[in-house]
């Protein structure tokens, strides 16, 4: 059996791993258009802040290591077209310009996505950067130590934008974060928690500019100098655009079915509309567990990796189904660490769901443990269906790392647990670690009391 895998980020990497595990006798060809295998953009902040010293270490695989396992690895080599009927792909080797055709038995596509650009005047000025991929990581690293860069404007207040803002604030730059939404991190946290995080960012010379639309970029001598919104003008020696991504799928039009946004349509086995072709990663939708399978664009490494494994299994004949996901994620912003999963109070409307939320606060450890010994405040917000009491989502924030609680809530969502299931669920207690009642117990117990009061 010959399997061709296109793309080397999370989804493609996991597909190759799964095929190696399930069918070690299979012939695997792995193609990457860029000059570097399996760069992980989610690790970029660690490199930019010097926690990881070598940009080449931000990867899970090397060509040499994969070739040693029997995989034929091709970098700077692009699959430019697919003939689904003939089970063949057309390839360009960018190192020497040579072209060739390869046959496959199974084809797994992990084409990924590209950073979205802003269609406004001045978007071609120099020093307007993205924050995705190894090439941009190297360029951004240079700018963190560039004495000519003093004012940085980040456009987009999602995870990538906030990571960029923190990185450049730590590098001593004045940072402004602009977003069209009314709050920073609005897709991930509700207002009570974004208020806390925003105040923390302001302490570190990051100015929040939410609820604003970009009108144009202004420059001098070909370099950006200002960002103009519908409400204000901000000085800018560097602009980082982090306004989302768009699927890299134009070249697949007419080969596999795409939706109105260019996303590849796949079934529960990651199969496309074309025989023996599978697709994974940011160019596909996932099924959202809180809504029992609504297809949603949730671009997370965890989802791509899961899809890659499932595609790999099915490609070699081991039937498997991609599970529903909760959309769990986490981030640290200076001293705060937070995580969220599922539906929030602020995102319920887009799913046309009636929800109720309960916010509780507690200390990390029992009251006899002093603040100096790490007994910090914890905020936990639980979202649920007020009729069935099914758990639909949660958020947690603290200066202590309590983020792993969200993995438990993610499992509760997938298992369709209710508030009663969680209220007295069995979690360990040891005063060096936590409180007698886990914060999740506390949240569920309070939610039940809130519902009882409203009867």
Structure, described:
- The protein is an alpha/beta fold.
- The chain is built from ten helices and 25 strands.
- Helix 5 links the parallel strand 10 and strand 11 (about 175-180).
- Helix 1 (about 10-20) packs parallel to helix 7.
- It is globular.
- The chain starts with a strand and ends with a helix.
- Pfam families: Pyr_redox_2, Pyr_redox_dim.
- Keywords: FAD, Flavoprotein, Oxidation, Oxidoreductase, Peroxidase, Redox-active center.
- GO terms for molecular function: peroxidase activity.
State the secondary-structure class. Answer: alpha/beta
Number of domains: 3
CATH class of the largest domain, named Alpha Beta
Shape: globular
Largest sheet: 5 strands, parallel
Per CATH, what is the topology of the largest domain?
FAD/NAD(P)-binding domain
The separation of the N and C termini measures 62 Å
CATH homolog superfamily of the largest domain: FAD/NAD(P)-binding domain
Rounded mean pLDDT score = 96
Work out the number of β strands.
Answer: 25
Helicity range: 10-25%
CATH architecture of the largest domain: 3-Layer(bba) Sandwich
What is the subunit arrangement here?
Answer: single chain
**Helix run count:** 10
Radius of gyration: 24 Å
User: Strands of the biggest beta sheet: in what spatial order?
Assistant: 3-2-1-7-18
């Amino acid at each position: 059996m010959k399997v061709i895998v296109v793309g080397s980020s999370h989804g493609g990497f996991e597909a190759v791993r799964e095929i190696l595990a399930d069918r070690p006798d299979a012939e695997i060809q792995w193609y990457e258009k860029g000059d570097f295998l399996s760069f992980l953009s989610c690790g970029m902040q660690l490199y930019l802040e010097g926690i990881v010293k070598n940009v080449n270490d931000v990867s899970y695989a090397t060509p040499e290591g994969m070739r040693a396992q029997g995989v034929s690895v091709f970098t700077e080599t692009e699959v430019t077209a697919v003939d689904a009927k003939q089970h063949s792909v057309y390839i360009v080797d960018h190192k020497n310009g040579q072209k060739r055709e390869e046959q496959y038995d199974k084809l797994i596509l992990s084409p990924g996505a590209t950073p979205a650009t802003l269609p406004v005047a001045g978007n071609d000025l120099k020093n307007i950067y993205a924050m995705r991929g190894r090439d941009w990581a190297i360029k951004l690293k240079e700018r963190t130590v560039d004495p000519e860069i003093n004012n940085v404007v980040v456009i987009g207040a999602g995870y990538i934008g906030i990571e960029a803002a923190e990185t450049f604030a730590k590098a001593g730059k004045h940072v402004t974060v602009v977003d069209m939404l009314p709050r920073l991190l609005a897709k991930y946290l509700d207002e009570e928690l974004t208020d806390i995080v925003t105040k923390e960012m302001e302490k570190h010379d990051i100015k929040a500019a939410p609820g604003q639309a970009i009108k144009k970029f202004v420059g001098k001598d070909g370099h950006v100098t200002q960002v103009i919104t519908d409400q204000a003008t901000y000085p800018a020696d560097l602009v980082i655009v982090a306004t989302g991504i768009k699927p890299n799928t134009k070249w697949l039009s007419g080969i596999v079915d795409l939706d109105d946004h260019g996303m590849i349509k796949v079934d529960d086995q990651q199969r496309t509309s074309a025989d023996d072709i599978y697709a994974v990663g940011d160019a596909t939708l996932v099924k959202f567990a809180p809504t029992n399978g609504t297809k949603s664009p949730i671009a997370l490494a965890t989802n791509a990796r899961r899809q890659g494994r499932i595609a790999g299994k099915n490609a070699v004949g081991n039937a498997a189904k991609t599970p529903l996901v909760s959309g769990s994620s986490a981030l640290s912003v200076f001293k705060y660490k937070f995580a969220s999963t599922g539906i929030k109070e602020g995102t319920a409307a887009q799913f046309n769901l009636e929800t109720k939320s309960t916010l509780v606060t507690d200390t990390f450890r029992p009251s006899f443990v002093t603040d100096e010994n790490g007994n910090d405040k914890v905020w936990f917000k639980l979202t649920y269906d007020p009729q069935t009491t099914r758990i639909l989502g949660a958020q947690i924030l603290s200066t202590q790392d309590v983020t792993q609680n969200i993995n438990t809530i993610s499992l509760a969502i997938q298992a369709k647990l209710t508030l009663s299931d969680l209220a007295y669920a069995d979690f360990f207690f040891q005063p060096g670690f936590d409180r007698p009642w886990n914060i999740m117990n506390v949240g569920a117990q309070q939610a039940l009391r809130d519902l009882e009061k409203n009867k």
